[in-house]
Design goal:
It comes from Lates calcarifer (Barramundi). This protein is α+β, with helices and mostly antiparallel strands. It is built from 2 helices and 9 strands; from the N terminus they run αβββββββββα. The longest helix is centred in the first third of the chain and has 19 residues. The structure holds 2-acetamido-2-deoxy-beta-D-glucopyranose (NAG).
């Protein structure tokens, strides 16, 4: 009866392990469906006053989700901690379509600075654990 739940947990853990074992150059973030997740990216000294943003896929103009110039948009919000040189984008109400490839960017003249981000969304129905399992 609880097999489905176990299966789900298994996939969940597997994703976390994949996330943890990835290359250091890529930031791996995991979140739960329906919850929020924070994507934090650090940047180099001297870029404190530059615009930061988060984009998806190939990071074309229409792929930019949010920038520090407009701190809140739809399900995204962004905060730049200039003391720690880390900017954090919060994605709220995660769903499976949010999983995938993102880029943290710093706008500058010439080529922007990019950091790759992989977001995993864990479809864990925690309620199943206390309930009678899937029907
Ligand atoms: C994301 O960061 C904000 C601000 O630091 C914090 O209040 C919130 O709890 C964090 N959310 C998660 C899911 O870690």
């Amino acid at each position: 009866m609880h097999l489905k739940v176990v299966e789900r947990l298994y996939w969940c853990c597997l994703l976390f392990i994949v996330a943890l074992s990835g290359a250091a150059a890529v930031i791996h973030v995991s979140g739960y469906e329906g919850r929020d997740v924070n994507v934090s990216c650090s940047y180099g000294e001297g870029y404190e006053s530059y615009e930061k943003y988060l984009c998806r896929n190939d990071c074309g103009n229409s792929d930019v989700l949010i920038t520090t110039t407009k701190a809140k948009k739809n399900k995204y919000s962004i905060y730049d901690d200039k003391k720690r040189r880390v900017f954090t984008t919060t994605l709220s109400d995660l769903s499976s379509v949010d999983a995938g490839k993102y880029w943290c960017g710093v706008t500058r003249t010439g080529k922007d600075i990019y950091t790759e981000v992989r977001l995993f969304v864990c479809i864990c129905q925690l309620g199943d654990l206390s309930g009678g399992g899937p029907h």
